[in-house]
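Dear H.,

Thanks for agreeing to be a second pair of eyes. The structure we're designing against is below in token form, covering all 256 positions.
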């Protein structure tokens, strides 16, 4: 009898270990984001602009990818597609293995809220809301219980070094502080992908350094990051650098 019980538990354990190995394999095989032959055209006929031209790009769990390239090479268009703010004209975008083209606008809004975090050059905070209220907002959309929101938002603002400024509105904060609020807001729902389009473009060099240190900390905590920049110092902090030209990736190199 005892032997049987022992065997039963051994089998259970074996099953669980196997399942967890399978789950890990699944996670490591499925990229967080995968763009396959993605094209994006703006406008029709003679005025049509091809912003992306059969773009292929894969971002894996734990990646920190910097995207560089001349102005007009399609970086922001690619970020908008990765962020489900826009849809490809053709081609496929899979986010955590789910084909985005199969989803309606409501499902995309939910995915933007739960799976994606955004940081923009101009911060895009709500001007009439405090830092704390700005960070709480995505949790309201995600349906977090109200008694948890405040404490989670306070923790996130502490993490980005703004414990003292939680009740200030954006116009009472410096550019670097506003960007840190925006980063706290972007990570509050634990996104699988953090997207930042020229996040240091409006910052001076010492504040840029603060924001880059923060991205590095987040990356070490396991957050997957894609960041657009035209500054080598910024790109060099990433794990890989992708260069865009005419709506395509022309090279991807590993850093360091
Ligand atoms: N909403 C739009 N309407 C028309 N053309 C656009 C729009 N957005 C971008 N473009 C064009 O698409 C190309 C790529 O733009 P963008 O992705 O913003 O490049 P980048 O971010 O690399 O500077 C450019 O030629 C740009 O003018
Ligand atoms: Mg751009």
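And this is the sequence the design step returned. I haven't edited it by hand at all.
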């Amino acid at each position: 009898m005892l032997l049987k019980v022992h065997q039963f538990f051994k089998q259970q354990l074996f099953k669980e270990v196997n399942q967890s190995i399978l789950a890990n394999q699944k996670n490591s095989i499925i990229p967080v984001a995968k763009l396959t032959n993605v094209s994006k055209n703006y406008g029709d006929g003679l005025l049509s602009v091809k912003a992306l031209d059969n773009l292929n790009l894969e971002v894996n769990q734990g990646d920190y990818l910097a995207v560089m390239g001349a102005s007009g090479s399609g970086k922001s268009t690619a970020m908008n597609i990765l962020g489900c703010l826009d849809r490809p004209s053709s081609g496929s975008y899979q986010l955590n293995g789910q084909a985005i083209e199969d989803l309606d606008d409501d499902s995309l809004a939910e995915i933007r809220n739960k799976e994606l975090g955004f940081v923009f050059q101009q911060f895009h905070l709500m001007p009439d809301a405090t830092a704390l209220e700005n960070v709480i907002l995505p949790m309201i959309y995600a349906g977090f219980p109200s008694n948890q929101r405040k404490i989670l938002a306070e923790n996130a603002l502490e993490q980005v070094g703004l414990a003292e400024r939680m009740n200030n509105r954006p116009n009472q904060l410096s550019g670097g502080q506003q960007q840190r609020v925006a980063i706290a807001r972007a990570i509050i729902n634990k996104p699988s992908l953090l997207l930042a389009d020229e996040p240091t473009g409006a910052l001076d060099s010492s504040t840029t350094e603060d924001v880059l240190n923060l991205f590095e900390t987040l990356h070490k905590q396991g957050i997957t990051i894609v960041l657009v920049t035209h500054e080598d110092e910024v790109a060099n902090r990433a794990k890989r650098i992708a260069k865009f030209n005419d709506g395509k990736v022309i090279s991807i190199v590993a850093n360091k």
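Two observations from my side: The first helix runs from residue 2 to 29. The mean pLDDT is 91.

Warmly,
E.
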